[in-house]
Amino acid sequence: xxxxxxxxxxxxxxxxxxxxxxxxxxxxxxxxxxxxxxxxxxxxxxxxxxxxxxxxxxxxxxxxxxxxxxxxxxxxxxxxxxxxxxxxxxxxxxxxxxxxxxxxxxxxxxxxxxxxxxxxxxxxxxxxxxxxxxxxxxxxxxxxxxxxxxxxxxxxxxxxxxxxxxxxxxxxxxxxxxxxxxxxxxxxxxxxxxxxxxxxxxxxxxxxxxxxxxxxxxxxxxxxxxxxxxxxxxxxxxxxxxxxxxxxxxxxxxxxxxxxxxxxxxxxxxxxxxxxxxxxxxxxxxxxxxxxxxxxxxxxxxxxxxxxxxxxxx
Length: 314
Hints:
Layout: H1 7-15, H2 20-33, H3 35-38, H4 48-61, H5 64-83, H6 111-124, H7 127-135, H8 142-146, E1 153-155, E2 161-165, E3 187-190, H9 193-213, E4 226-229, E5 232-235, H10 240-252, H11 258-271, H12 276-283, H13 288-293, H14 298-313
Antiparallel strand pairs: 1-2, 2-3, 4-5
């Protein structure tokens, strides 16, 4: 038995723990970082010392998080083999992973930079494009923003929009996945007043596009992220959000992506005092550990502690 697709991986695909995008991502990690060196080698012949040398090489080529992800994937394959009686033990368990020669991507975003960036976005973009950007402030994944349909939107007694996040569109599932990244990603998101107004703008624009293109779309495929070209109706490619973000970032010199916005939401929510469990469910994470990995609160939390102390004591 070699490091090909494991029983556990197949189980995750079959039970919906991984969606098409997750499957595609893990397949890419396996193909680029595991297959060439270990793909055809029987599991029992994998040598710990050889693997440690391999990790050192990888840390010279990739960022630490990428190497960490590939290490987890290979270890999950070996653990699965042990669980199913195909291997006596996982020889790679507990290996120390050093630091990469490449600087980690900086996903920290200060409030001042966020405010500058969002102000630039509002001034630079059309109202509809700015509205899509604004939705990412609430911690939504790019695919989830693109997966919002008319049927997923309701309004509460205060006229605030409530989103039922239950579909996603990625570059692998441009026409809709019919589900979210994981089962835990299915959830409700409540927008603030401004977000609700902007969402209404998106909905009105989508209605006008369909009217002009003279199309009727079935409810399950009636996405809000659409456009018209030469009087024809098209779904926006999920990458359109990244292009919008890049345009704003180049204009103001502050680099932000939809995923960085998700990190920012997590960090600021926890700083503001939200319960970690509530943030976990709001983000659609399956565990608190994942939520904690999204936080960047060192300096800002220190300032927050000072501010709280100042208000209470001084």
